[in-house]
Amino acid sequence: MSQPISPELREWLVSQLAAGHSVPALRASMRAAGWQDAATDLALAQLEAGFPHVEVARPRRTEMPGPDLEGAPLYIDAGDRRVQVLQTMRHPRVVVFGNLLSPEECEGLIAAARVRLARSLTVETRTGGEVLNVDRTSEGMFFERGENDIVARLEQRIAALLRWPVEFGEGLQILRYAPGAQYRPHYDYFDPGEPGTPTILKRGGQRVATLVMYLQEPDQGGATTFPDVGLEVAPVRGTGVFFSYEDPDPATRTLHGGAPVLAGEKWVATKWLREREFK
Ligand SMILES: O=C(O)CCC(=O)C(=O)O
Ligand SMILES: [Fe+2]
Questions:
Q1: If you measure from the C-alpha of residue 256 to the centroid of ligand 2, how many angstroms do you get, rounded to a whole number?
Q2: CATH code for the structural domain at 75-274
Q3: 241 CB less than 6 Å from ligand 1?
Q4: DSSP state of 136
Q5: Are 150 and 221 in contact (CB under 8 A)?
Q6: pLDDT above 90 covers what percent of the chain?
């Protein structure tokens, strides 16, 4: 679980920094006191603005988002919902969840997104801007974080389920695939070799995990595919597929795509998780 940053903790950090203690020393004592790295990072990142002279060291990530599968549970308490663990894979790290969203939540997200759909744009890593992408023939839009009640509730649930702060997540993306539409296999991390990537990484660092949630199932087709391992996840309403990638590297085997929809319409919501706070 991510831990909220209390005013007391904030005050303590401020006083420690003001007293000249280094950020690595604070990080170490917070860790010793049981604070998770992600929460510590968030607390320290929030203070950075007030202490511009303090260089916050960014150690190599030691934690990754993901559910607590200790003891091989069939269900996980995600705060306001009991989410099912349907399938897991280690390499690539993939977890398929059931009962992630209610039918009403799926409907509500679709209704709010439908009026704002435009031809999907993918981030153009060569320039850091956005362009139309022929590899992705779905239509899409982004919600702001916490934009409406359903979005806010779902984001809290995802944070609890994947043990990653809400603030480290991008806004929820909604995609609609008409018959024939698809999303060709790709990686969700930003290609370190592309010249536009450093600009993108300034805001929250790399993507480290993805949760694709199915809001409406097509009649045929539309699975989420992982070609490296021959895995196909059926787009069943209310369920979702999580996968994570510790490094922006094909060795993670997280190549994936949305197979062509053959009949009916497929709607998904995608939540991308960054390594740091995404402001
Ligand atoms: O639609 C799908 O099944 C995959 C979506 C996806 O890969 C993405 O949103 O990044
Ligand atoms: Fe993707």
A1: 6
A2: 2.60.120.620
A3: no
A4: B
A5: no
A6: 69
